[in-house]
Design goal:
It comes from Nocardioides albidus. Pfam families: AAA_16. GO terms for molecular function: ATP binding. It contains 16 helices and 9 strands. The strands form 3 sheets. Strands 2-3-4-1-5 form a 5-stranded parallel beta sheet, with helices on both faces. Strands 6-7 form a two-stranded parallel sheet. It is globular, with a radius of gyration of 24 Å. The chain folds into 3 domains: 213 residues, Rossmann fold, CATH 3.40.50; 77 residues; 74 residues, Winged helix-like DNA-binding domain superfamily/Winged helix DNA-binding domain (Arc Repressor Mutant, subunit A, Orthogonal Bundle), CATH 1.10.10.10. The two termini are 41 Å apart. With 393 residues, it is α/β, with parallel strands linked by helices. Strand 3, helix 7 and strand 4 form a beta-alpha-beta unit. Helix 1 packs parallel to helix 2, helix 4 packs antiparallel against helix 6 and helix 6 crosses helix 7. The structure holds adenosine-5'-diphosphate and magnesium ion.
Length: 393
Amino acid sequence: MRRNPYTPGQVPRILAGRAVEMRRIEGLLARVATYGELGGPLLVFHAPRGIGKTSLLRAGQRRAVESGFVTAWVACSRQRPVLPEIAHSVGRALERADAVPSGAAGQRWRGQLERLTVEVGVPGAKVQAQVARRQSTEAPPAPHAAIGVLESLLHDAATAVREHGGAGLLLLLDELHTASPDDMSVLLNTLQNLDGERTENPFAAVAAGLPVTPEALTRAATFGERSTFISLDVLSEIDARAALVAPAEAEGVGWTPAALDAIVAESRGYPYLLQLLGSTTWDAADPAAGARLTLTHVKRGLPVARDQLTAMHRARWGAATRLEQRFLAAMAAAGDANVTRAAIAAGMGVDSRAISVPRERLIEKGVIEPVGHGLVRFTLPGFAAYVRGLDDA
Ligand SMILES: Nc1ncnc2c1ncn2[C@@H]1O[C@H](COP(=O)(O)OP(=O)(O)O)[C@@H](O)[C@H]1O
Ligand SMILES: [Mg+2]
């Protein structure tokens, strides 16, 4: 029996599709590698959960490593300030690559690392105090000090990589929407400054976050909008088939056309669902090399997949506030497709202006997503039916 090659909830073994997006990343990398200069503005991929942002970023990271880059990965979170995480991650990446600056540059490097980790970690306070001590007249706002430190840290790190024969430094920022506005502002200002001396900075940054990310960045700094925003969509039908076929093929296992059709239709290109249904079908079949996965296996695997989805629905429902739950219930009652603001407000028995806050929060959480013209839809398939089912209970 072969090992299950599907990866629900984890980075896929084979990234299906995403050729256009990968080319954008490769464009940045090529610029850094060829000219030793800044790759370009911050590249930001945004999409609801489960669409494949982290998977794409990881694939970009792999490509960068193959091209001789040193890469630093940061999973942003609301629990920790992001700037010290960046400093740590860049520091570790340089150590692993044996590219830590030496001599006088090394001393400066360690000093910066220290300042970013210790002082910027305590938002504002310490940096401000320090700056105030140095210049008795009007202290600049706290972020200025942080920008300066982060700027020279990234500059020195990228230069050191290059001096050690590497192509440059790639910073990957996942879940960027969780960064605080201050941290976003420092980050954007830093990138702006690095851009001012682009030929001196063999560096690129690629980020991913929920659909609120572009708006959050633009709010954090007026020029945040100069970042390159790319929204990730579900996989096309061809790519969805590839996501199912390729991992099995690598294990010498095939799919019958009927089985493939069933999963492609059921998952509607949603990468997480493809992996989940691929996985439950595989487990139901427990195939040997040369075997084929059939519609019977798909059907046998479905209850397991449904249980898993229900657990996810339950978690999302449980994480919603009472007001958000009322919003979700009204939305689910209105149907499975795109729902208007008016329909939700009517369902809740309130004025349509009154639903803005829960609407925003649910979009931020990635439970629903805007689809234009004020319409929203659920991001996870089957969620509407789950919520309607709660009423019956
Ligand atoms: N291009 C892809 N090809 C195959 N599987 C993918 C692809 N993108 C994502 N997946 C799968 O979808 C699920 C969600 O991917 P992930 O990158 O974690 O999404 P996100 O970061 O947007 O929440 C994972 O199980 C992953 O294996
Ligand atoms: Mg992710």
